[in-house]
Structures are given as C-alpha cells and as structure tokens.
Amino acid sequence: MSPIDVSNLEKISTEIFAEADTACVAVAANIAECIRLNDTNKQTTVLGLATGSTPVRLYRELIRLHREEGLSFANVTTFNLDEYYGLNGDHPESYRRFMQDQLFDHVDLKSENTHVPNGLATRDEVIQSCQAYEQAIIDAGGIDIQILGIGRTGHIGFNEPGSGPESRTRLVTLDGLTRRDAARDFLGEENVPRHAITMGVGTILDARKVYLLAWGEAKASVVAESIEGEPTETIPASFLQTHRDCVFCIDEAAASRLTRIRYPWLVGPVEWTPERTRKAILWLSQKVQKPLLKLIEEDYAENGMSDLLTEKGFAYDLNIELFNTTQHTITGWPGGKPRADDSNRPERADPFPKRSLVLCPEPMDDVYCLGGTLHRLANQEHEVTVAYQTSGNLAVSDNDVRRAIELIMEVEQDREDREGVGFARKVEQQLNAKGQFGEDTVEIRHLKGFIRRSEARSSARLLGLKTEALCFMDLPFYEKGRYRRFKSEESDIEQMAELLNNIQPHQLFATGLGHDPLSVPAICFQILLNALARCEDKKWIKDCHIWLYRGPGSEWETHEIDMAVPLSPDEFENKIRGIYQHQTQRSQSPSVSGKRDRNSWNLASDLNRATAVTYDALGMAEYEAIETFKRFKI
Ligand code: GLP
387 and 534 share a domain? Predict the structure, then answer.
C-alpha cells in the first residue's frame, strides 16, 4: 500500500499547538498585527467574534495586549456570530452579556461598534433584523478576521447540520446535542432556548480570513471530519474547505483523530517506537478483524506496516509480544495483588494495604468511571478515600431543590423543630425571587451541593465504601464561578496539596488530561498538577502511582490502556445501580461525543461493555465489562 498524501487528505490548513494557550497567543498576535496595520492606513478593522469556552483564552490574551502592549480597539468594529433567540442582553447566558464580560468591558472598543444579533426581535421583525445584520457587515466593509469555535455537531455559529454553504443570517432551531451541551450553562436542558439567530455559513465564508479554534478530545472527531471529509451539510464546518484563507488552530487533543496523528504509518515513514508499534498492531487487528495471534505478514504489508516487519522481524514475534503486553494490562487487583509475583502486573503488590485516593471533579464521576474498580479496592481492603474536588452544585435543577425543601419542611414541622424550616423557607424565597434564569444565592448553591453529597453517599455505600471515606472538597474556583467562566486560584492549589499531604497516597486516580482547558475536569487536573509540584520533595510522592481515568463519556483507546479492570456481571450491575443513585443528574449530565440518542447513564455501561468486546476481539478472555486506566508519570 502506498502512503497517503497529507496535502490531499487535509483540505484545510491546520496548525497543531501543544496547548490552547500557545495557539491563542499566536492568533491574538495576528489579530493585533491586522489592527495595527489598518490603524496605520487609517482603516477600521472588522472582527467576527465567537462565544463558548473556546475563545475565552483568546479574549484574555487580547485584553492583555491592550493593557500591557497598548493595543487599541478604538478603530475596531465587531460582529458576533450568533445569539440565543428570546434572551435579552442582560441575561447571564446571552451572548451579548458573555462578550461584555469576556472582552468588550475590558478594552477600548466603542460600544456602538459592537454588534450581536438581536435575540429579542419578534417573529415579525426577525427576517428584517437578520437582513439588517448582513447589511451592517457589508456597510462596515466586510469581516477582516472571523474567529470560530466548533460545536460537537460540527456547527459553526449556530449553523447546525443541514445548513448549506449559501445560508445567511437567520433564525434557526437548535440541535438536541447542542442544547444538551448548553444544559449546564442554563441550569437544566429544559431552560435552554430552542432557537437562535446566527450568521449563515455563507456570511462566514465571506470573511477575508478565518481562524477556527478547537481544544480537547471531545472535538477531535468533528475536527477530523471537517478537515478530511467531503464538504457536507451534515458537518457545516466542512464548508470551510472552500475558503481561500482559513486556518484551523487546534491543540494536540483536538488533533488526535487526524490521520497523520492517529495513523502516521499510513501517511509516510515513521520511527517505530514501542508505543507506536503497539498502537499500530492493535489498530491492524481491529481493522482486519482478526485476533492478535492470527495476524499474518500480508496483513502488515497491506496496511502500510511492511517497514515494521523489515525492522522488527516476523509477524509471529510481533503478535506474541503484543498479545502478552495486552494480557498484562488485565487485572482484577487494581490495588495490586498482595504476596503475588507482580512483575507482569500493572500495579505493585507492596505496600499492602494501600492508601488509594480517588479524585473526582464532580460527584458521580467516581461510580460512573471507576465504580467497579472502587468496589474491588474496597473489598480488597485498601484504605480508599474518594475526594470530590467540586461540589457540582451547578448541575442540580431548581426543581430538585424544591423537592428537598419540601422534605426538610415536612420532617422539621413534624418534629416541631422550626430551625430547618427557617433555612428551607429562606431558600424557597430565594428561589422564587431569582426566577428561572437568575444567579443562585450562596444558600441555594449550598443546598444543591448537599443534594449531590447525599447522592454520592448513597452511591458509595453500594460500592462498599464507608461514608467516612468520602471527602467533599468544594474547591473555591467552582463555588465562585459559572460553567465556561471558571478561574482557579491559589486557595484551590493549597487545598489540594493539603489533602495530598494528609493522605500521602500510594496510588492516585484522577482525570482531566486532554479535556477542554476550561472544563471542570481540566481545571481540576491542572490544580492537581500544581499541587503535586508543591509536594515534590515529600517522601510519599516518590512511591505514588498515578492512574488516569478518561472521564465521563469516553474511554482510553486500546493502545493507551495500562490497566484494564474487568467487572463480573454482578459487579457491573452494582455499578449501574450506583450510577442511578445520582437522581438529579439524569438530565443534567454532559452528553457525550457522537452519541446523540443515549443518556449518559446508559453510556457508561455501553463504554465498559465496548471495551470488553474489544479485548475479546483481540483474543483476550471474554468479560462482561472493563474499566480502563492509563499510567501517568509526572
Ligand atoms: C455554541 C456557539 C458556537 C461555539 C460552540 C462550541 O454552539 N454558538 O459558536 O463554537 O457553542 O462551544 P464551546 O467553545 O464552549 O465548546
């Protein structure tokens, strides 16, 4: 098989950055250069702007350039891509408010030069209002630089699947997946508007330069399809292939599904490191649908891997070696098997019992991602602590709070003890006062946090954990923030470091690597890394193994798995029961990559079962379900 030419495969110019921050600095520098050049020529710069988590760091960098390097926005006009229909500009989730908070209020942009589609135009006015928006862009001289994020349906702006390349600014209906992705911002999917006004794909394509930004593994599939697939209405971002000057600036996680990253041996000669060899052979086995031990030389040769054979010898040897490596990832002893030979086990036998610390960005991540493993650790008598890094209170709906209030009132009234009623009544009044979209008061958030704690306890009990094993950290960054706008601070790191030093774990389970940098798991992971750096000189850290779980809604790819913990049918059922204890999360949990029609509860079981099927197909034993971990070395 001859190699694939990347320039034919990637139909959009793509720059991959190690981190989102570096990408944002580069794009901001280009914007600044454009503004300064236009300023010298006494011309206005017209920027097309986007909302969402993705551009937040870009805006922070533009603000820094303004404050520290004198970049002026006095001659800049902006047009935002979109706005929720029915929200006024003061609504905390309106894109107008978002832009004010994230950029406009911090630079010298003239407010009359900022444009966001009017979400309050009546049905009668809306067509005309959209046409006026198009006209205003034309009158301003057209967009110089358009910034885009990408939704998981492949949408740009709010051009959902089905939007054609000629589409212009208009009223649209939001896709179910898009509304689910916005559910947490709106404190419940039922509060997310059903419609929005968006610039069309055609409007976007008219911009002279386009930068699409994407971070995190959750965007990887849709990014790859947009760049490598055919232009199609199913993925509106793919129409950017027809633009003369469009660049995708993405981080490594978002690039992970591009052919040149995922299957580099198909694209050209590669260095056959042990890691890549493992990845390629596992891929080969899945591609030709043969267990590892049945792969033959022709399979290698026909799939771009003949140089591997030339370098490393016979298919038979390669197959056997990888079979053993994969076999050795499997263990029913996630804390290590005491008094056993551990030379081929993922976790060491000693010390026993271990202090195992499981870090969860939010309650439910524990049972959802490693419920079976936790059950085993507890049964095998390790000292397990589950620390919930944030309270997760933003993910509880007001309706669930009302139910709790009524319960407290009823119990307390019955006992003629009025104190609880006082608190419950106060929260009830606050709920009534804030209305559907208002900010939660501290008391409301506390009560929501307590609800999540009670769910976490009831789930942990099913996993065999004592409730004393649970630690609710309520990290301050979360308590003070909103989704997409969190900022961690010193006190978060201090609290994390204190917990680590108190427990001095022998093994640590955590998540957040490769997630969108502004997401709760990614922020928690960064806090953990900073805290670990502070414990560098402590003795315990030298002997602490860190195991990463992938996070709700996705699993490690087979070649990334260093520990695979099989679950028996009973354990698996118990795990599912544990997930069901998180009653308030039924409609709140983030939806998951590419799975539109499954709620996240079902998805946990789908993923664990799928891993078991994959292992079976590779020629390993057949299990009911498997949870997976990747070793992380600092
Ligand atoms: C919304 C916005 C898009 C944005 C997308 C992704 O749908 N209308 O413009 O690109 O969300 O959001 P995020 O950047 O938070 O992932």
Answer: yes
